Amino acid sequence: MTDPSLPPVSKHDRLIDAANDTPPAPTAVVHPCDAGALGGAIAARDAGLIIPILVGPAARIVAAAEAAGIGLAGVEIVDVPHSHAAAARGVALVREGRAEMLMKGSLHTDELIGAVLDSATGLRTGRRVSHVFIMDVPGHAETLFITDAAINITPDLETKRDIIQNAIELCHALGNPAPRVAVLSAVETVTPKIPSTIDAAALCKMAERGQITGGLIDGPLAFDNAIDPEAARIKGIASPVAGRAQVLVVPDLEAGNMLAKNLSFLSRADAAGIVLGARVPIILTSRADSVRTRLASAAVGAILAARRRAAQPIPQA
Length: 317
Known about the structure:
The chain is an alpha/beta fold. About 40% of the residues lie in helices and about 15% in strands.
């Protein structure tokens, strides 16, 4: 029985605890040249989640560590001249079988993802790459998964199909065999005046026909009747998803980014981030992330890496 005198265990803390049952994953930390990126990588190492390989200008990495009082004893550093080279070398470490994950350091997201998507030397699969925020929202009973708020700017129907499938498979890896997926729009009725409602209806039909599998999908749903049972009841929406959604699929990157940041800064939610659809998980962190959020992101990556390791060995370049 939970002791009511103790503070509640956060959803992200439970994720971190779950990842402790998996071996730490060798992780290429790309261009960790500031205190936040270095501190997050070393904290994840100390929590038993990753084995960091720091890829970037060695002198800058060491200087940043010394300035922040971060010890790097026993940590491998791969010296490259700049962030672009760090992204390329981090991807190469995965292709060589030396790393099972990538972690973003202090470089722009598009620089890292550009190296991942390179047609000749990257980590492409048959699936579109997409991002998921794993949101621990105070006062909300379940973890919310918001996708895609960082990679695909204006996804078309085919891309949205992959975005949903990536999110469903993430939920499976985290122990949810049938996630409830809401395809969001401004309204819950299909209208040609709002294209995202047409996409939502099409995606639901695609799920019925087996083009999306493993989850319960409904849409279009507005945000309120996706997550609040009373709002769904008032609107007369009867479905296993309405009012109880766990995965929130947004119309475009702008909507997803604003939704996630509203929850983070107004509701004080913790927003862990992961990129899916590549050959390995990619941990995507922000300079504003707390230590717990960085650890939660690493924990999700570690769980995915362990699942992938169990399924097949990392392919060689």
